[in-house]
From TrEMBL:
Domain Type IV pilin Tt1218-like: 36-110
Transmembrane segments annotated in the record for this chain: 12-36
Organism phylogeny: Bacteria, Pseudomonadati, Pseudomonadota, Gammaproteobacteria, Cellvibrionales
Keywords, ordered alphabetically: Membrane, Transmembrane, Transmembrane helix
Coiled coil, from the record: none
Keyword flag Disulfide bond: no
Record protein name field: Type IV fimbrial biogenesis protein PilV
Keyword presence, Ligase: no
Domain of life: Bacteria
Length: 205
């Protein structure tokens, strides 16, 4: 009798090979999905950081608008606040005591720095969260409208600078550096937002 090949054995081996190929393809797909999710989370975090920085800058602009007579005191230039640069709360406490414009500005800067450093946001381990930003720094530049003889009326730029999670194009690229952080190294990690407005002291009108 002639030998009859066992078709079941060859079919079974072919099916196992298909399973291995399918498993390999699925594995590659899963790796891609995980990588895409990681990139999505990083992009989302960067968007949240930028939104937070804009909110912090706008908070300071509102303080200045409410106290234009103290604008010279707010004008700290590149002497960034953040990281505990203002050690103690200025006296008097303008939350409970009447203050003059310069005292109010000094207290606003202290309060703003605490917000930058995340003093009001406590993490699960009891530490400050840094307001959602890594090494945040804040700078304020006031340019008076000198051409019209104004000393407390002019343009105010509020800058928030922080360290990003991933290295990319330098956000400053030759522009204004807020503080000494990342001034000479790790420039690809620098992130920055700038909000500008025109502040008017009605007493100068």
């Amino acid at each position: 009798m002639s030998a009859v090949p066992d078709s079941r054995r060859s079919a079974g081996g072919f099916t196992l090979f298909e399973v291995l190929i399918a498993f390999f393809v699925i594995s590659i797909g899963l790796v891609g999905v995980v990588s895409l999710q990681a990139m999505s989370k990083a992009s989302q975090h960067q968007a949240v950081q930028r939104s937070r920085a804009v909110m912090l800058a706008d908070q300071m602009l509102e303080m200045i608008r409410g106290n234009p007579r103290g604008v010279a005191r707010y004008n700290i230039g590149a002497n960034a606040v953040g990281g505990g640069s203002i050690a103690d709360e200025p006296s008097p406490d303008c939350f409970t005591t009447a203050c003059d414009p310069n005292e109010m500005a000094a207290h606003d800067l202290w309060s703003w720095e605490r917000t930058l450093d995340g003093a009001g946001v406590i993490a699960a381990d009891g530490g400050a969260t840094g307001a959602g930003l890594i090494q945040p720094r804040g700078c304020i530049v006031f340019t008076p409208d000198a051409a019209n003889g104004k000393a407390r009326t002019g343009t105010v730029d509020v800058l928030i600078q922080w360290r990003g999670l991933q290295e990319t194009t330098d956000a400053i690229s030759g522009g204004f550096v807020c503080g000494s952080d990342f001034a000479n190294a790790a420039t690809g990690f620098r992130r920055q937002v700038v909000l500008s407005t025109y502040v008017v002291d009605e007493r100068e009108l």
